[in-house]
Each structure stands twice: as C-alpha cells, then as structure tokens.
Amino acid sequence: MFTFSICTYNHSKYIIQHLESIKYIINEYSHEQKTHLLICDDYSTDDTIYKIEKWLDKNSDIFKKHKLVKSKINQGTVSNFKTLISNIETPYFKLLAGDDIYNKYDVVNRYSSKNLIVGFSLPFNLSKNNYFEDIQSNYFTRQRMFLLNNNSNFFKKYIIANNSLSAPGMGYNIEWLKDEDLNNYFNEIKYIEDRPLWYFIFKNKKINIELELTPYVLYRTNVGVTSKSSKFHQEYLNDLKKIDKLFFKDTGYANKLFKKLYFKILFNIYKKNIFSYSKKISRYESNIKSNFTEYQKHIDFIINKAEGFESEN
C-alpha cells in the first residue's frame, strides 16, 4: 500500500491543483482504492481546509483510506512533518507540499521502494510563456555529478558541504523516519526538515540508493507561494545556523573552512570523470527538454481540472 502525504499551510490557491494531480495518477494508472491520502495542515488561516474538505466530499471514494489532520496552532514545518510521519500507516509513501504538482508518471509504482530514492523535480513558473524557461544549466550539472558518484559516502559529504538535494523528488523508507533518534536532529529546529533528515539517514542508516532522473514532481517557483512574515525569515535563518553547528559538531570539525574543502574535493572528483558521462547526460538533457511541451500540457490540464472543480463548488 502507498500513501500520498501532504503538508499544507495557506495553500488555498494551489491545493486543488495538487489534489487533482493525485487524482490523475490514480485514474491514469488504475490505483483506485489502492492508496491512502494523508493531509496534515499547520493551522492555515486561509481557505485551505475548506477546499480540501470540499474536494474530499466529491473524491474520497478513489482512496482506500483518507485522513485530514488539523493543527490547533501553527507549529512550523518540522512539527507538521513529524505529525505526518506518525500518521502514515502504509509501507510506502510520497511526501509533497500542497503547492506542488505530480507529473504525469506513475509515482505510486516508482516510489514503492525501501531504498533511498534520490530523484529530481522540475521547477515551473506559470508567469512565463514557457513554464520551464527559468531552469538553469546547473540543474543538469547536479545530474552529472550524481551519476558519477552514486554512493552514500558521496552524498553525506555533498550535504555537509552545504549542498541540497531535490527535496520534492526524494523517496524514503518509512522505517527510517519513524526512528526516535531522528527527533534529536530536529531539536530546536522549526522550519527546515530536509537537510537534517538527509544527514541523519546518510550517517546512521545502511542504505541502497536509487538515482531517479525522470521528474515525477513539478514544483512551483512563483513568488509568494506561501505567505511568510519577516519573523518567519528570521527564524528560518536561525534554523540554518543551528543546522550548520549540528553538522560540524557531529563530524568533529570546528569551523566552516572544511565546507570549502568538501566543495574542492567534490569538484575535483566531478572534473576528472565528467567526460565519461558527458554523452549519457547530454542524451538525458535532450530527452528532458524534448518533454517540456508535454509537461506544460500536463500542468495546463491539471489547472483546468482544478478551475473546473472550484467553479462548480
């Protein structure tokens, strides 16, 4: 069994699009009554809950089980993430925020794995005629580096060096996330759950990695996706500082100069071996770009479905 799990906070403008993209996957790949839906809302102050409940009134029958968990106070991303994990009842799941969209591929089958899936997600911007116009060349540079160094030791160093993976594309073993020791990595951190989670897994778990280059998730880059105050930004910066200290205390390093060392090591590894994968990644890059039109059509289809639902309800 598989759970579509969603963390929401003031996602009223986009949550129906997200839910319609889930419905598309279920209908397209015949997953009716084979999946769970779990939504954890961190005390949204807009119409997010109202819209979710309206949508469930019409569509809950496509799921074997559905659950909406509503917080009575705004706790922050990390606490909402913990609540979500504690409520997952299936061996496999995929976690996204309520403003992202699933691509047209069968995410249920692909993410039903006990291995760590290091996946990629495509950023899109609806304000552009070409939704994928903002994608930079370094998007494909990361794929090159990951193809060359597909092992847990590399990824551990990559994260310590202050790099990020593509959070919307990641897939986890639920047993890792239910580990009580993981809570120690979240002490005093309110808004950033991904980097502590990644480091905890790479440091403490014996893992097999599956590198997935197909974009199963499309994530929104429009300005103002979620309402954030100046207080939020300050607390977010404080979280970054705490995570920095956590990483270097845990590894026994005293200062940030080692970050530069990690960067240099990783770059040298990449530079020495890039040519062996240049043709392979070039084919991949061409293939992804050749699908941009199809992906844009999929986004438009989902948006039209969402607009149709909201106009009728």
UniProtKB/TrEMBL annotation:
Stretches of the chain forming a coiled coil according to its record: none
Positions of the Glycosyltransferase 2-like domain: 6-152
InterPro entries, per database record: Glyco_trans_2-like, Nucleotide-diphossugar_trans
Highest taxon of the lineage: Bacteria
Protein name as catalogued: Gt1
Organism: Proteus penneri
